Amino acid sequence: MIYQVYPRSFADATGDGMGDLRGIIARLPSLAHLGVDAVWLSPFYTSPQKDAGYDVADYCDVDPRFGTIADFDALVAEAHELGLKVIIDLVPNHSSDQHVWFQQALASPEGSPERARYLFRDGIGENGDTPPNNWESVFGGPAWTRITRADGTPGQWYLHLFDTSQPDFDWQNPWVREQFLDILRFWLDRGADGFRVDVAHGLIKEAGLPDYTPPADSGSMGGSTRPLGAAESHDGSGVHDHEYSLAEVFPEPPPTPPYWAQDGVHEIYRDWRALIDSYDGDRVLVAEAWVEPLDRLAHWVRPDEMNQAFNFAYLSTRWKADDIREVIDESLAAFIGVGAPSTWVLSNHDVVRHASRLALTIENPQGYGMGPKSPGRPDPVLGLRRARAATALMLALPGSAYIYQGEELGLPEDIDLPDSARQDPTWFRTNHERYGRDGCRVPIPWEADAPSYGFGPTANSWLPQPKDWAPFARDSQLGVAGSTIELYRSALGLRGGHELGHGTLEWLPGYPADVIAFSNGSVTVIANLTDSELRLPDGELLLSSEAIDGRTLPSDTTVWLRSRA
Ligand code: BGC
To answer: Which residues make Cβ contacts (< 8 Å) with residue 77, sequence separation at least 6?
Structure first.
């Protein structure tokens, strides 16, 4: 099980309100205690932080806000001492506009080798004042920005699929490929156990950069056609059920956008795989690729490519038994079909936390976020109950599970974050139409009674923490039967003990349609998604997402039983 640390919000050793590597080191024992196998660190590189570090200005150094390279070395040493692997985030699709490579490109003439590192193009029209094509940035607004020449006249345009401060590299250029192989070597030599590869579906763009208009219902990152996070109404009002039109049941597959999932990306990862396999130990490449359907995503994890790919189809599935069974079947078939483990994930730093998302009453596309004026505000009690049931279900599945810092505390999305505190570029680039991702990035609470809930030694916190988070603090929950952290600890312990990650799933017949029931080796898992209680079969209770009487299984609850021999 891999635990995502979002460094700016995990633990702050200096007290400046921004988490840092020293803070992480101090808290590593608590992760070992939780029972994780590996940590994945979101970016800590030198960066102007226009996109929370996903805008890298130096790929081979640590931003002073987060510490030093010596701190990184100490972190790896301490993690390894505790038996934890360290996976770091690599951001190859784009750099920061402050990277020396981009600054040199700006200072060099059109057509120069420095310009050829990025995607500079002339504009359209007599004065070149129309962008080279109609692509839109994932964060909203055009994907092109025009530069100004040294003499003050308008110059070429450069492509940025994300913020204007994140120029896209030209991965057709062998020079770019060589630089990144060196960057991989740099971190592998320092003991990194692998890389989570950011936007791993985006590096290659279709030749000629043709115009593209996404279908109206596509998700922001990869053209997802699944409902993202919509839930059935729990009260039986049926508000969210609707008749499906023919077009919805048999949708035309959307054409692949010319900037996502181009075939040419695969040869890049084959080179990287050969490199990491030349190192000792089990080093891994994990694709952050918003690609559907799942059998297409599986191309990223063919035997000579990456080792794992995030399963966003699973994350995006609503709390409905049929949909969950279907996505599990599809995932196992697709990944096992190419010899890779399936992965499972419910939350990360880009989506509404699942303790809120699973009780949303309307769809919320990836990255849109939630704020005080968003419709479909979730019921927090129902959200947490479903989140605990969903996690207990996920942690029983064969494959690799990823969890995001704070979910083990049951943290909800911070929906009421003041607008003045928001920092996600999405919020600014959509003129405040989309709240963006700050609500899932608030520094996490460790101690109920300490300033900043023990996030750091002072009350500082780069995003304000809600006043009512004391009950979520780690020290409020540790050792308390039934708490969310104890549920995670038990589930992770049993998952390891019963080797569920390496097991085989078999659906169990004879249950109502809205009940998910399967066995994985010695464990039987039953999740009740109906509105009524279910009689439990006989069997030793190993785990329950809620306190139960042992005879009946209430709604929105998952149990693990020891399977009969
Ligand atoms: C990361 C985001 C980031 C984007 C651009 C994503 O997939 O997870 O947080 O904003 O890539 O780097």
So the answer is: 191
Distance between CA atoms of residues 512 and 553, nearest Å? 13
Residues 222/312, Cβ–Cβ less than 8 Å: yes
The larger pLDDT score, comparing residue 227 to residue 170, is at 170
Q: pLDDT of 288-307, one tens digit each?
A: 999 999 999 999 999 999 99
Residue type for position 492: L
Determine what percent of the chain is predicted with pLDDT higher than 70. 93
Three-state secondary structure call for residue 33: helix
Structure tokens at 521: 């080796």
Residue with tokens 């990836």: 366
Over pLDDT 90: what percentage of the chain? 90
**Are residues 275 and 144 located together in one domain of the fold?**
no
d(CA 178, CA 546): 52
| pLDDT tens figures, 463-490 | 999 999 999 999 999 999 999 999 999 9
CATH number at residue 510: 2.60.40.1180
Which is the closest atom of ligand 1 to the Cα of 55?
Answer: 12
Name the residue with tokens 């070395």. 73
Q: Does one domain contain both 548 and 428? A: no
Please check whether residue 521 is in contact with residue 500, taking contact to mean a CB–CB distance below 8 angstroms. yes
Q: For 113-130, what is the mean pLDDT?
A: 97
Domain boundary among 492, 513, 541: 492
Is-contact 411 472, C-beta < 8 A? yes
Residues with CB under 6 A from ligand 1: 51, 54, 91, 162, 198-199, 288, 349-350
On the question of pLDDT at 229 being above 70, the answer is no
Residue 445 lies in a domain: yes
Residue type, 358: L
CA 537 to CA 539: how far, in whole Å? 6
> Whose C-alpha lies nearest to ligand 1, atom 4?
54
Answer yes or no: is pLDDT of 33 > 70: yes
CB 99 within 8 A of CB 50: no
Residue whose Cα lies nearest atom 1 of ligand 1: it is: 198
Q: What ranges make up the beta strands (E) of 278-432?
A: 284-287, 308-309, 343-345, 400-404
Contact 241, 232 (CB under 8 A): yes
Cα(444)–Cα(474) distance, integer angstroms? 9
Q: Count structural domains, the chain.
A: 3
**Amino acid at residue number 299:** H
CA distance 127 to 538: 77
CA 484/CA 353 separation, integer angstroms: 14
Q: What are phi and psi of 330, to 5 degrees?
A: -60, -40
Identify the pLDDT of residue 365.
87
CA-CA distance, 135 to 209, in Å (whole number)? 9
Length of the chain: 565
* Helix/strand/coil for 544: strand
Mutation probe of ligand 1 site: the residue of 41, 198, 259 with most atoms within 8 A of C-beta: 198
pLDDT digits (tens, 9 = 90+) for 368-394: 999 999 998 999 999 999 999 999 999
Rounded-to-integer distance, Cα 162 and Cα 156, Å: 18
Q: How far apart are CA 493 and CA 256, in angstroms?
A: 42
